[in-house]
Amino acid sequence: MTKKEFVELFGAKAELKTKAEAERLTKVFLDTLEEVLVKGDSISFIGFGKFETSERAERTYINPQTKKPMKVAARKVAKFKAGKNLLEKMNPVVEKKATKGKKKSK
Questions:
Q1: pLDDT one-digit tens code per residue, 36-67
Q2: How confident is the model over 69-90, as pLDDT tens digits?
Q3: What values do phi and psi take at 43, rounded to 5?
Q4: Which residues pair with 55 in a beta bridge?
Q5: Strands 75-82, 49-56: parallel, antiparallel or unpaired by DSSP?
Q6: Sign (positive or negative) of CA dihedral 36, 38, 44, 49
Q7: Cβ pair 42, 52 in contact under 8 A
Q8: What would the pLDDT profile of 9-21 be if each residue is shown by its tens digit?
Q9: S-S: 83 plus which of 10, 13, 49, 93, CB 3.0-4.6 Å?
């Protein structure tokens, strides 16, 4: 899904009057999320998930074309960990009817 498609869906679900209003609210949300992550803080939406920052250490890897070792500088990365409710909606489980451990006797 593209950002444009998301904005249209968001506007429809929120029953917003204009597409511009949906775009503005989406931008405000994303800018606020970005601001929190840039500061190094995390933000949790209970049941949905958690956005957080993490540090990757400097590392060395081998360039497959030249076979020469190269260094990758340390850097901050954004991570998202899905919450329980989101994971359950993404991976629905069909419940089996439980039978109590007794066998029928003849």
A1: 999 999 999 999 999 999 999 999 999 899 99
A2: 999 999 999 999 999 999 999 9
A3: -140, 130
A4: 76
A5: antiparallel
A6: positive
A7: yes
A8: 999 999 999 999 9
A9: 49
